[in-house]
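Researcher: If only I could read backbone structure tokens as easily as an amino acid sequence. Walk me, if you will, through where the backbone shape changes along the chain. I have put the entry right below:
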Amino acid sequence: MAVLSGSGSPAAPAELTWALVLAASRVVAHEAAALRAGRWQTTLGRTVRGRTLGILGYGNIGRLVAGFGKAFGMQVVTYGREATRTRAQADGVPVLASQRDLFAASDVLSVHLRLVPETRGIIGPGDLAAMRPDSLFVNTSRAELVVPGALLAALRGGRPGQAAVDVFESEPGGDAELIAHPQVLATPHLGYVERDSYELYFGTAFDNVLAFAAGAPVNLVNPEAWPAAASPGQS
């Protein structure tokens, strides 16, 4: 069977990540709700300028988020596998010695890893406990990158002080206890839900189908399968 690849853009999830960073740092959702309820200036947020942004996974999305951080005057550091190190060094971004060091050094820690068997549960209680009481943990990648229950337990223990999450182990619905935690800003997996992204996803898919039907497939993941797929009786 011939398999055709689609395409996507890292811009939408990167922008949502940064929106969550700013909204959590300035306590925007809480203050907006308070204002509607007739209250005025109930919390004290903080700026991100001059603080440290940690990026776990310096791929296409992480790289964009790092750029946003630099534009806002943050010091950016990272940790990851060889590909992360190579990209980060090319951009002049310091690579810390360990994942635990990254969590400990970050005022804002943003996760940008793919979920594969090797990364499932890669973030454990010890990593989260290494964060400071005033730090922010952000996950717009996959909930399963974190050991089940570890983030909620860490927040209850006061390290990190806040979390902003767009992904949950059970979707739709999410983790009710995590969503209800007063120090959590939660959104319903909006990272890819954006007009330009959808146009790109579906436009590429339609182009792939039309090209395949015309006998000239594009974006083949497994080119060796095309002759067999084109043979009578195959699809």
Observations:
- Residues 229-235 have pLDDT under 50 and may be disordered.
- The longest strand covers residues 52-56.
- The chain has two domains: 11-186, 195-230.
